[in-house]
Amino acid sequence: MTGVKSIFVGVPFDDGTTFRTGPRFGPRAVREASRMLRPYNPVVEVKPFEKLGMIDYGDVDTVPGYIEDTNRKIEETLTPIFSAGIIPAVCGGDHSITLPVLRAAAKKYGALSLIHFDAHSDCWDDYFGKKYNHGTTFKRALEEKLIDPTRSIHVGLRGPLYDSTDLSGLSKMGFSVITMKKFTELGVTGTLRQILEVAKGTSYVSLDIDGIDPAFAPATGTPEVGGFTSREIQDLVRGLDGKNLIGFDVVEVSPPYDVAEVTALLASNLTYELCSVIAKHKQP
After folding, report:
1. CATH homologous superfamily of domain 6-280?
2. Which of 19, 79, 161, 237 has the most crowded CB, counting CB atoms within 10 A?
3. How far, in Å, CA of 90 to CA of 86, rounded?
């Protein structure tokens, strides 16, 4: 892959979901919606795909019904990509797919700074009595020392919980948190200031589409009202300009619940924006 600095890779797997299925069709829908993307990003002032020599790597060969087997497949696929210094733009799939991506990344970069946009922390110790699903991803990543909690932040958390400890426990783990209530107080500028203060060094971005309000992104498995608008999440992503991002994912797009492709279109554009901020500072 001479000249390739970044790749798009799909992970069509949703057996880690706990409510509405469908994210296995996410990569296909995001690719379809990408037809509206044009080469030049006038806000970031870069041609991301040209600058990154970006290609579509295809999909990981997942194993429907078997999360541990699929995790191994994902890790095996992503390990040589990270090893070569190539930046993957990963499209899920449900949020369980992030764990093996982080396993592959940590082999090269060590414990990462995590910037996590989501309605949910995905830090439960278990969910429905199981250790591996889309609600336990970052608790496992923390245990496996794939992420450094002191340099990691969850942004956009909201919605009803099982107990107050679901939120207070994050601070005890060492994470920083910006809930949607706090975001309303801080605004985009204040939120970005906190993200950039926390997320030092080599960073990975994980963006769950349910972080956005279902009015703007209805096609997701666990929707929560009161989230980001499309413009707010665009501004937050663009504000990561200059961060040392070694990879990212956009997950939980569930096309069966979409309306006029609005969720797939947003996911496609957020992928484009993340590629743009990476490309702007990538050496030619």
Report:
1. Ureohydrolase domain (3.40.800.10)
2. 237
3. 12
